[in-house]
C-alpha cells in the first residue's frame, strides 16, 4: 500500500479512507485497466473495416506506456482475491476485452476479411497472442514498427509471398 500511495501522491491513510483493504484497492486497479480496454474497444469499433479497426487497436495500445499496462499484468495475482470478486472481475474482463475483440473478429469473418475455416475464438486468441508484446515488457525503440509487423503477420501470415 505504501508503494501505491507514493505512486499516486497520497498518504497511506488517504488510500485506506477510500479503499477498505488491499483487495479492494487491487480490484479497483484492475477494473480501471478494464475501463481503459473498454475505451480502446469503443474507439476501434468506430472504424469501417477490420484492417482499420486493428490499426486503431494497435495505435491505442502503443499510445500507452508499458507502465500503464501494469494493472493488467497484475491480473496474474487474482489468486489472492476472494473467489466471488475474482469471478466478477474475470467475467467483466472477458465481456469487455475478449467480447469486444471476438465481435470484431466475427464481423471481419462475415465481411470476408478473415478466413472462415477458423473460429472467431481461435482467431481472437491468435490476435491476443500476437499483440501481447505491445502491452508487456519495457518500452523499446521501434515499438511502432513492431506493431505494424505484428499486424502484418496476423493479417497476411508469416510465410513468404
Describe it for me?
There is one protein chain. The protein is mainly alpha-helical and about 160 residues long. It has one domain (about 20-155): Tetracycline Repressor, domain 2 (Orthogonal Bundle), CATH 1.10.357.10. It contains eight helices and no strands. It has helices at about 1-10, 10-20, 20-45, 50-65, 70-75, 85-110, 120-130, 145-155. Helix 4 packs antiparallel against helix 8 (about 145-155), helix 6 crosses helix 7 (about 120-130) and helix 7 runs antiparallel to helix 8. It starts with a helix and ends in a 5-residue tail after the last helix. The mean pLDDT is about 90.
In short:
The chain is an all-alpha fold. 68% of the residues lie in helices and 0% in strands.
CATH topology: Tetracycline Repressor, domain 2
Work out the count of structural domains.
1
Q: Uncertain runs with pLDDT below 50, 5 residues or more?
A: none
Major sheet size, sense and barrel closure: none
Question: In CATH, what is the class?
Answer: Mainly Alpha
Within CATH, the superfamily carries the name: Tetracycline Repressor, domain 2
Helix content: 55-70%
Secondary structural class: mainly alpha
Q: From N to C, what is the helix and strand string?
A: HHHHHHHH
Portion of residues in beta strands equals under 5%
Q: What is the count of DSSP helices, taking H or I runs of 4+ residues?
A: 8
| Rg on CA atoms, Å | 18 Å
User: What is the overall pLDDT average?
Assistant: 88
Under the CATH scheme, the architecture is Orthogonal Bundle
Principal-axes geometry comes out as elongated
Q: What is the number of E strands?
A: 0
* Terminal-residue CA separation: 53 Å
Keywords: DNA-binding
Domain HTH tetR-type: 1-37
Organism: Deinococcus proteolyticus (strain ATCC 35074 / DSM 20540 / JCM 6276 / NBRC 101906 / NCIMB 13154 / VKM Ac-1939 / CCM 2703 / MRP)
Protein name: Regulatory protein TetR
